[in-house]
């Protein structure tokens, strides 16, 4: 393979695919502007760089001054071709970061030198680590340290050092997480199951910090003024001056290295005299000259000769017109951008430190196309061999014509038809307005944002479009997951512009026209059917903000439906559904995302006026229960004393239900692993389930998902046992034994068979009436998850003494599915406000007895349907009602989603900010002052229902001085009892006698949901019947 593609090496080796990732407003698009101005082939004048924001070509992006979608541009630096993808930093658009990261091989991580590491910086570093990108760190806005904070060079160095340490700490945290999970899987799995290469890769990675300025993968820049440098530039400047080699200086210009002017030697801290006054070489030789230039240019009494000296020393050609400009900032920019050009510093770092597609794909292939272990011997060996050959081509980035062609589409994006190039490469008409691309309903054309991983892609080529669920080994049963399509045109993306190309080789990023009807969000393109689909992308958050949408004029309903269909395709993250009440529900990541979706619908896709409802907030329902009372709960469950009993209308089936609260960590694990549980329990057997989204919260790829999930469930239970308030070893052991028994009795999960509620099979020791038979159930989920080695049904079946009992036992088996259905219905709509339940465990004992006085079973079965309806239906309804009553009796509580909220503000606005937080029921967890800056950072948790309009209100109350970022964090139970009535003397004294108690927050939220769903609400229509009320307010 290696020698065969060596002829295509030189060209592919000179490609770099990079994306720019950072927190919002840390300077991504400004940096991109300068790179485009220098290397974009004249599409942007250098004078406009930083002000034009070339990559933000949507009106909404320019208006809000934030990036909202990832866009690509091809740059040429020396003899290298660089595909640059600019991505958003706002949390609402983090799905665009995922699509950009998948198509790139390296990432420029930008961090603001003043604000430091923020919440989204953590998110993009994690994305970078998951997608196996090679990162470089760019510390931006260095000029703010000089002009705004007025730090000394030594203070600035300390600050930069701390930021580099902090970023390295985050990355090493992900590395150790990977290492520990690898060790766990080696210990858990059989010997030799773990691939050797993973372990080695980790060991060599962990020997040193990821980001080291002396390695050349850290740049210090000011994107707005257009200058930047790495250590290498200064090492070259000083090499001849200090008489040292460039390599030695590059190592010494960062860290505790000092220059002794007497001996002209580079020494450590001990070798230098002068006590605390000694300055590291980075301060002395790098920062101090910069500070001097800035002070000379910007201070009124600055030394103007300093600028002349810099121009002379480095032979800079600065036009006299710019030097004589009255605005000192323009003079400074003219000198700095020529002395330390930003684009050279960044692009030389990209070329040197980031891998070419051939090197990158061999490293990333384990993430893109994980190795499949095929356990089934009946598969076609030719198909398997070809699929493995395709994987090897992707690994080698084979760009020969005869190589299998594989590409990945990370998103579809809409372009107005009039923006498409009208002429092809040879001047022929390619997109005439008359022959619209078969999408007559719209002026939008959908292009696929794709990266070619192997082979050559050319226009008019026929390819197979594979969805994430496709499995080449299953042949005909996979028809719905594969389509054949013809590519119409290929374009090179130049920001907003598109440049037609006839073909593109492996390693390039292109836009493809002609796949609009075949791909919804993302897909794998392949020239052969025998190819595994690429693993799915991981999004950092889920779309949680839901609104109902309807047209102002009902006649426009058709246009709205078409518009929603187009929007769903154009946005990688939006979800469009129809609710049970028939509303069209739009789910977005946050308020800014939702506003953009609604604006796109109105102006581009549907072109009708819309009515948007207030946000539909989801809640969950649970019962009161502390982790500290876990043992008591377990004892009451096993004793079977505290239960609710209900009988079916015909009296033949008696249902007893017990309910217990699950430990919080176990609930969280079940909720996070819902996709994987759906695969395991839903028995989508074979490799599809393995390859599907295994890694919802952990980053392990090559691990048996069932073993991993079983271990996570066991760890969660263990963690909850240890977190019991009074840590008593004997109690902990008892809890552990009881939980191990319970985990072997899991019958089903709910709602929808994958939720965070558990149905346990009843204890076989429990007895009903003499002639009745218990519906046993089977530990189906426990078997699937590996808690039960072999099915345990031998000892459970009672002795069949008579024909009647035998017939009842058979009927009990048939009714098992009815009990599960009743449990699913109950957990899907709880008793408080028909919302799904959260973290509850049910034990349902259903006893069937024969009809009294009816010996003949056949007669019975004829009579039943006429009187009370079908018996299975009666059982489902009774189980559902019994479960709901059991929850109501155990002190029900409402659970609401919580946002983690990071706020930054000046000290004088802390008061108004806390006032806003107080009105929003926020819980402040941390307040710290940012070191070296006058800003406070506050961390708080805000309920989802209170978060709408939060950012606007905060800006209004703090005069725009506070910024806020919201990320969905967790679910939390409201402590208030929605049915609270004062009973004790103290309560009556505090709240009144019960008739005048105002409804608490939990009750208000429940009533609001019930009203929205059309359920009955208990409320007083007449508040004060005995008092006469007049409109006049006389005192």
Automatic annotation (TrEMBL):
The keyword Hydrolase applies. GO terms for cellular component: cytosol; ribonucleoprotein complex. Pfam families: EFG_C (PF00679), EFG_III (PF14492), EFL1 (PF25118), GTP_EFTU (PF00009). One of its GO terms (biological process) is cytosolic ribosome assembly. Residues 13-246 form the Tr-type G domain. Keywords: GTP-binding, Hydrolase, Nucleotide-binding, Ribosome biogenesis. GO terms for molecular function: GTP binding; GTPase activity; ribosome binding. PROSITE patterns: G_TR_2. This is Elongation factor-like 1.
């Amino acid at each position: 393979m290696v020698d065969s593609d060596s002829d295509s090496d030189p060209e592919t080796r000179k490609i770099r695919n990079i994306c720019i990732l950072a927190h919002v407003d840390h300077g991504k698009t400004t940096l991109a502007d300068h790179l485009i101005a220098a290397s974009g082939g004249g599409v942007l004048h250098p004078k406009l760089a930083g002000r034009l924001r070339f990559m933000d070509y949507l009106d909404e992006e320019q208006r809000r001054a934030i990036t909202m979608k990832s866009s690509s541009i091809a740059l040429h630096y020396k003899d290298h071709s660089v595909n640059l993808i600019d991505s958003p930093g706002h949390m609402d658009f983090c799905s665009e970061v995922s699509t950009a990261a998948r198509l790139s091989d390296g990432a420029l991580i930008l961090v603001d030198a003043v604000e430091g590491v923020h919440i989204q910086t953590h998110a993009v570093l994690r994305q970078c680590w998951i997608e196996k990108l090679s990162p470089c760190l760019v510390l931006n806005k260095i000029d703010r340290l000089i002009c705004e904070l007025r730090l000394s060079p030594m203070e600035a160095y300390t600050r930069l050092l701390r930021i580099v340490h902090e970023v390295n700490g985050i990355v090493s945290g992900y590395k150790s997480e990977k290492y520990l999970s690898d060790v766990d899987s080696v210990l858990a799995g059989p010997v030799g199951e773990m691939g050797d290469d993973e372990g080695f890769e980790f060991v060599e990675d962990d020997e040193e910090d990821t980001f080291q300025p002396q390695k050349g993968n850290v740049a210090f820049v000011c994107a707005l003024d257009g200058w930047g440098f790495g250590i290498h530039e200064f090492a070259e400047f000083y090499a001849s001056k200090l008489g040292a080699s460039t390599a030695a200086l590059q190592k010494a210009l960062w860290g505790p290295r000092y220059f002794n002017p007497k001996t002209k030697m580079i020494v450590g801290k001990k070798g230098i005299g002068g006590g605390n006054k000694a300055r590291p070489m980075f301060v002395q030789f790098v920062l101090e000259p910069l500070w001097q230039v800035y002070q000379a240019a910007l201070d009124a009494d600055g030394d103007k000769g300093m600028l002349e000296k810099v121009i002379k020393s480095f032979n800079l050609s600065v036009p006299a017109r710019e030097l004589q400009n009255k605005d000192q900032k323009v003079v400074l920019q003219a000198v700095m951008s020529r002395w330390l050009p930003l684009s050279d510093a960044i692009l030389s770092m990209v070329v040197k430190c980031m891998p070419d597609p051939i090197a990158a794909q061999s490293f990333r292939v384990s993430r893109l196309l994980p190795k499949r272990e095929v356990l089934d011997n009946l598969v076609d060996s030719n198909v398997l061999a070809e699929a493995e050959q395709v994987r090897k081509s992707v690994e080698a980035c084979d760009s020969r014509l005869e190589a299998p062609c594989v590409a990945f589409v990370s998103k579809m994006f809409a372009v107005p038809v009039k923006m498409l190039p009208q002429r092809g490469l040879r001047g022929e008409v390619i997109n005439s307005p008359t022959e619209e691309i078969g999408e007559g309903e719209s002026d939008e054309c959908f292009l696929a944002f794709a990266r070619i991983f192997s082979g050559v892609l050319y226009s008019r080529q026929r390819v197979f479009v594979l969805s994430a669920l496709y499995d080449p080994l299953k042949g005909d049963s996979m028809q719905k997951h594969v389509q054949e399509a013809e590519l119409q045109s290929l374009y090179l993306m130049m920001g907003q512009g598109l440049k037609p190309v006839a073909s593109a080789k492996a390693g390039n990023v292109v836009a493809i026209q002609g796949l609009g009807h075949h791909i919804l969000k993302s897909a794998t393109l392949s020239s052969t059917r025998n190819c595994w689909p690429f693993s799915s992308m991981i999004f950092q958050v889920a779309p949680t903000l839901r609104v109902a949408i309807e047209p102002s004029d009902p006649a426009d309903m058709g246009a709205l439906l078409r518009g929603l269909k187009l929007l769903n395709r154009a946005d990688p993250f939006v979800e469009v559904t129809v609710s049970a009440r028939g509303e069209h529900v739009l789910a977005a990541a946050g308020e800014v995302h939702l506003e953009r979706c609604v604006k796109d619908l109105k102006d581009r896709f549907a072109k009708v006026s819309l009515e948007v409802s207030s946000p539909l907030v989801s809640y969950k329902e649970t019962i009161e229960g502390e982790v500290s009372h876990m043992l008591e709960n377990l004892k009451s469950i096993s004793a079977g004393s505290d239960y609710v009993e209900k009988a079916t209308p015909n009296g033949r089936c008696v249902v007893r239900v017990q309910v217990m609260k699950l430990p919080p960590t176990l609930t969280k694990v079940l909720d996070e692993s819902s996709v994987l549980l759906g695969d395991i329990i839903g028995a989508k057997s074979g490799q599809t389930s393995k390859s599907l989204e295994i890694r919802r919260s952990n980053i392990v790829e090559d691990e048996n998902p069932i073993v991993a999930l079983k271990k996570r469930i066991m760890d969660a239970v263990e963690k909850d046992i240890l977190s019991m308030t009074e840590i008593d070893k004997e109690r902990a052991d008892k809890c552990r034994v009881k939980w191990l028994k319970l985990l072997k009795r899991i019958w089903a999960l709910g709602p929808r068979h994958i939720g965070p509620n558990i149905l346990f099979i009843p204890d076989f020791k429990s007895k009903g009436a003499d002639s009745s038979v218990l519906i046993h159930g089977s530990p189906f989920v426990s078997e699937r998850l590996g808690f039960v080695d072999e099915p345990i049904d031998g000892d459970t079946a009672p002795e069949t003494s008579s024909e009647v009992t035998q017939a009842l036992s058979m009927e009990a088996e048939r009714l098992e599915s009815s009990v599960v259905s009743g449990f699913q219905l109950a957990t899907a709509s709880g008793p408080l406000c028909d919302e799904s339940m959260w973290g509850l465990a049910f034990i349902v004992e259903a006893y069937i007895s024969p009809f009294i006085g009816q010996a003949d079973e056949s007669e019975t079965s004829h009579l039943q349907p006429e009187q009370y309806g079908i018996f299975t239906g009666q059982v489902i309804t009774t189980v559902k009602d019994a479960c709901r009553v059991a929850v109501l009796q155990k002190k029900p509580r409402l659970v609401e989603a919580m946002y983690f909220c990071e706020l930054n503000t000046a000290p004088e606005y802390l008061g108004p900010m806390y006032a806003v937080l107080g009105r929003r029921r926020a819980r402040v967890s941390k307040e710290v002052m940012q070191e070296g800056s006058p800003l406070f950072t506050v961390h708080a948790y805000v309920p989802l229902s209170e978060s709408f309009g939060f950012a606007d209100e905060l800006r209004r109350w703090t005069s725009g001085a506070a910024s806020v970022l919201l990320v969905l964090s967790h679910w939390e139970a409201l402590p208030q009892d929605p049915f609270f009535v004062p009973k004790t003397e103290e309560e009556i004294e505090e709240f009144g006698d019960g008739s005048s108690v105002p409804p608490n927050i939990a009750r208000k939220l429940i009533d609001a949901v019930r009203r929205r769903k059309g359920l009955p609400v208990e409320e007083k229509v007449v508040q004060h019947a005995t008092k006469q009320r007049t409109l006049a307010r006389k005192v």
